[in-house]
Amino acid sequence: MRGVVVPLVTPFNEDYSIDFPALEEHIEFLQKVGVHGIFINATTGEFTSLNLNERKLLAERGRELVKSAFYLVGTASSNTVEVVELTKHAQDIGADYVVIAPPYYCPLNDDALFTHYSTVAESTDIPIILYNIPSCANPLSVSPIKRLALEYSNISGVKETIDSVNHIRDVILEVKGERNDFRVFTGLDQHLLNTLVLGGDGGIMACANFAPEVHLALWRAFHEKRFEDAFEHARRLAKLSRVYDLASSFGSAIKLAMSLRGFSIKPVLRPPYMMDGDEVKEDIRKLLAGVLG
Q: How is domain 3-224 classified at the CATH fold level?
């Protein structure tokens, strides 16, 4: 798996029930434009606002809908036993990968993080993408990433949602350098080009929910060695990524941007998250107009 992977939003109705028709429409759109992977129960999908049964139901429905892209399922939890249960479920329904963020809320050292992930890796066979998101969970330093990658063949890659070129560099050089099939993805739209330049494999990026054409254009230009075009698309992604700075949460930013671009997904977040109002929506509209026209 390489390329542009989309961490899906979870569509909700006004009563906070899951809007499955909107989910189906969005997945169909993403496959039509040609994204390389689709990731359900992601951070962007508000997985912490879903109960266990809803997460399984979404994973099953997504598996039915995703046909022309790699299919990834988020199975993170602060409870190792629950992570194993969700990961086994993803394996049983035929997902291609699971993506697992570290436990959140309780601080853990590297040894505890290694034990958490090794327990899951030893309990399942499905390829695992580690998910480093230090703004929301225990950070994964290079050392446990490398140890896990070298000891477990089914730990297949990492999503790096970290605003550090040096960290991504070190993971690529120290981990991918010793295990060439280990995949390194950025989780930040503005880091896609530099991740590719350093030898990474793509990105798992939330703005691809509403502007996947920009991410795909950068990917194609880079691999076709049209570097001036790649630079231009990277500048557009850098500007688009400012959408996160305009809203109170990533979920509000992405769903407002989607509504402004005409997607049928409603601008509804489950509490405790709240949608931003008209002022923020107007700021996002101006940003999108300046970048996407």
A: TIM Barrel (3.20.20)
